[in-house]
Design goal:
Blueprint: H1 4-31, H2 36-42, H3 49-60, H4 63-76, H5 81-105, H6 110-117, H7 120-154, H8 158-207, H9 210-219, H10 240-256, H11 259-266, H12 271-284, H13 287-304, E1 314-316, E2 322-324, H14 329-337, H15 342-377, H16 383-408, H17 414-438, H18 444-467, H19 478-499, H20 531-548
Antiparallel strand pairs: 1-2
Length: 550
């Protein structure tokens, strides 16, 4: 149970992060008075590879992941680990093919890049979609997961607890800018990883090792939980081919074309730091399967062998059967397996996930609103006014996210709900970025029409499946739906590019790869820190891991 010492540890952590964020952000801005906007939004482009890698990971991993990946480990085993390990391949794409253009073009936002490659209308549409997705996916879902955990642990109102934590996060984010976000994210990543390792070790010790867990799964005829690549008839609806066809559509949008994620790369000191930091994050992404999903799998084995009490999350169904609400499994592991004091550390880890996700998204929203919307209509604004507009935008976004919580709380699984929404947003954006970078003939008008039609099609399919749940569309797994929508978007853009041929400007003519060898032309650092060497090592490592856990 929660003791006073746990509350003291958790509260102290929140205060410490607030003070560090304010101190770092204000100190950095005082040193960068000449270019206040760049200092606030992009940390003066001074970030080095360790901070970039840790900040990318921290922005990706939130309380949603700690709670929902443990839930998925309990329900379906290692299956959801595909989202974590497939990300490594996408980060290789980001480092090799996308980063050079982002750094070379000197853009402050990804919509800005899209304007340079295509036209202004593409920039406007991506700005709108990116802001909406940041509010829903990066902020609101994280708030919801954090609120559920805090309510379960402390018995406080879900909305009140989220408002307090987010107010603290917004304070240092809005005042301190990207430098404050990245430094606090780096600290919070370490805290989050320590907390996750602690609960994983507690599960391992309680189960008496890996072998005992495997034996328990065998005895329950649940060995399939150890497999990440499932057959076509698997009940999960995510067979192996859906992983390899559907995930790249979601992953390329999320890791290569989403402002909230890529902003850490845009703040890099130079191209080498950007590339190596991205690949560093790819290596860190190996860990979540073992420290986020595995505890849920151990929890299932512990429950089956009578060593974990599920009474507090078990209810009686309409037909008298026992129903386990697995959303509370991570909280259950914390309270039953850890001593007082360590519980406070785990709560601090959960708060780390929530705060880093929210802070990263708020900074990205403020950047896009300032550069991509307000500066367009007020081009002669000084840096101070541009920063103030970003701060106001971040505050409004936070309030709007809070208003969405009751609606998003209707999803039975937070993780599945989040990915379901991404699957219908990502296809047109992934298509436009991929063809824009790899195909010379991708025209501005084709990109604009693909973004409009593809987004409308995704919205129609999503809405139809939620209103008429018995239609045949609704039976298609969301990963395959993402792939099908992506194929439609590719067909649309190629067709429209033929109808409306490309007319390159001097700027857009250098923003696509002339050949597949071009991305590897830069020498990079010597030794093990070379981006080519790291890419090869990461690719081989992930291939071996997928083979071992196939």
């Amino acid at each position: 149970m929660i003791q006073t010492v746990d509350i003291i540890i958790s509260t102290s952590y929140i205060c410490l992060i607030l003070l560090i964020g304010l101190w770092v952000g204000i100190r950095h801005r005082n040193r960068s008075k000449k270019n206040e906007a760049s200092s606030y939004f992009l940390a003066g482009k001074s970030l080095k590879w360790p901070a970039i890698g840790l900040a990318l990971f921290a922005t990706n991993i939130s309380t949603v992941h700690l709670v929902s990946l443990a839930q998925s480990g309990f329900d379906t085993g290692l299956l959801s680990g595909n989202f974590e390990w497939m990300a490594a391949f996408t980060l290789i794409l980001l480092a090799l093919f996308f980063v050079p253009f982002y750094i070379k073009s000197g853009v402050s936002t990804l919509p800005d890049f899209l304007e340079k490659r295509y036209d202004r209308s593409c920039r406007d549409w991506l700005t709108f979609v990116s802001i909406i997705s940041a509010i829903i996916i990066h902020i609101a879902f994280s708030m919801l997961a954090g609120g559920i955990v805090l309510k379960t642990l402390f018995g406080v109102n879900i909305y009140l607890s989220v408002i307090v934590i987010c107010a603290v996060t917004a304070l240092y984010t809005i005042i301190g800018g990207l430098k404050a976000v990245v430094v606090t994210e780096s600290i919070q990543t370490v805290v989050l990883l320590i907390g996750a390792v602690v609960i994983c070790m507690a599960c391992y010790q309680k189960m008496s090792g890996w072998g005992a867990m495997v034996d328990a799964l065998h005895s329950e005829q649940q060995s399939i939980k150890l497999s990440m690549l499932r057959p076509s008839n698997d009940a999960s609806g995510m067979p192996w081919y859906a992983v390899f066809l559907g995930y790249p559509v979601l992953g390329i949008w999320y890791w290569c074309a989403d402002q909230t994620i890529v902003q850490r790369v845009l703040g890099a000191k130079d191209e080498n730091h950007a590339r190596v930091g991205t690949l560093f994050c790819g290596f860190i992404k190996i860990l979540p399967v073992f420290i986020f999903i595995m505890p849920g799998l151990f929890a299932y084995a512990l429950a089956q062998t009578g060593r974990l009490d599920l009474t507090s999350i078990t209810t009686i169904g309409a037909q008298g059967q026992k129903v386990v609400d697995s959303k509370g499994i991570y909280t259950l592991l914390i309270t039953q397996l850890l001593p007082s004091g360590l519980i406070g550390v785990l709560v601090a880890a959960l708060l780390s996930g929530l705060m880093s996700q929210v802070s990263g998204a708020l900074n990205s929203i403020s950047t896009m609103v300032s550069y991509d919307i307000y500066a367009r209509y007020k081009p002669n604004l000084d840096d101070k006014k541009l920063v103030n507009v970003g701060k106001i935008a971040a505050g409004i976004a936070l309030v709007f996210s809070l208003l969405l919580l009751p609606l998003l709380n209707k999803y039975e699984s937070i993780f599945n709900g989040l990915n379901d929404i991404i699957a219908h947003i990502a296809p047109p954006i992934t298509c436009v970025f991929l063809l824009g970078i790899f195909w010379k003939k991708a025209s501005a008008k084709s990109a604009k029409l693909t973004l409009w039609i593809g987004s409308a099609l995704g919205a129609i399919v999503f809405t139809t499946n939620k209103i008429w749940v018995d239609n045949w569309f609704a039976a298609i797994p969301f990963m395959m739906m993402a792939f099908y929508l992506f194929c439609v978007c590719v067909f649309l853009q190629i067709t429209f590019s033929i109808i409306y041929p490309v007319e390159h400007t001097a700027e857009s003519d250098v923003l696509y790869w002339k050949s597949w060898r071009a991305p590897l032309a830069a020498k990079g650092w010597s030794g093990i820190g070379n981006y080519k060497t790291l890419s090869a090592v990461l690719f081989i490592t992930m291939a071996i891991l997928f083979y071992l856990f196939r």
